[in-house]
Amino acid sequence: MRSPTLIALGSELRRYRLAAGNMTQGHLAKLINYSEGMISNVETAQKAPRRDFVERCDQALSTGGALMVLHGLLKHETHPVQSFAHYIEAERQAAGIHMWDVVVVPGIFQTPEYARALLTAGLPAARPEVIDDLVTARIERQEILNRDKPPMLWAIIDESVIRRAIGDKETQHAQLDRLAQLANRPGINIQMIPHATGAHAGLTSSFLILSFDGSPDLAYSEDPASNHLHEKPELVKTMSETYEALRVVALPVSASLDLIRQVQEEL
């Protein structure tokens, strides 16, 4: 998963380049004395550029310093981006994934329309093409569900998640339908914690735990400022214990599917 700011920077670089008389990447590379491959990597958000690179692009494309503004934002999310990149790599290798979410439908289960509604609300200043790239990056993560040997998935979701209005009714209905379809697939277990449960162990944050064949478990959590990949055994153990406490109060899989369908019918 790529950084939203890195995607925005790459998108804006491409927009300014094309606006300068449909300038090619090769032409810009000669103007700023960098390789064409470097420009391609930045435009596709595969690599974070150095300050010198961005300054030269601003000058060559007469942006008025617009790219440096984005570059300045990028430095504040360096560690979270690296952490999430490490998580994505670990997710691809995981034999099992245990997810808990109290806010939104887990990204690996999201429909494109649901993801777009979330990202648009979260990044109100982002250009449409930036949102497009972010949606694509999120949906690409779901490829692991279609592998010959996908990871086993256990998801516990708070009822507030499926009742929260994300997008229009059609978007909400399609997302709940997607959840119901996934719940019927072998190797995917979705359990709901109903409102009637009241206070429980997972109300403070969402998190997930990755398990591997022959390697220690890892845990991943997010907060408004950053994201964290946890490797310390004591932290992973604490999250695992919290997950087990949530599993105790969650509805069985069949009853959870009934709740998803009930909420879907109420829309």
TrEMBL record:
Natural source organism: Actinoallomurus vinaceus
Leader sequence residues: none
Name under which the protein is recorded: Helix-turn-helix transcriptional regulator
Residue ranges of every copy of the HTH cro/C1-type domain listed in the record: 13-67
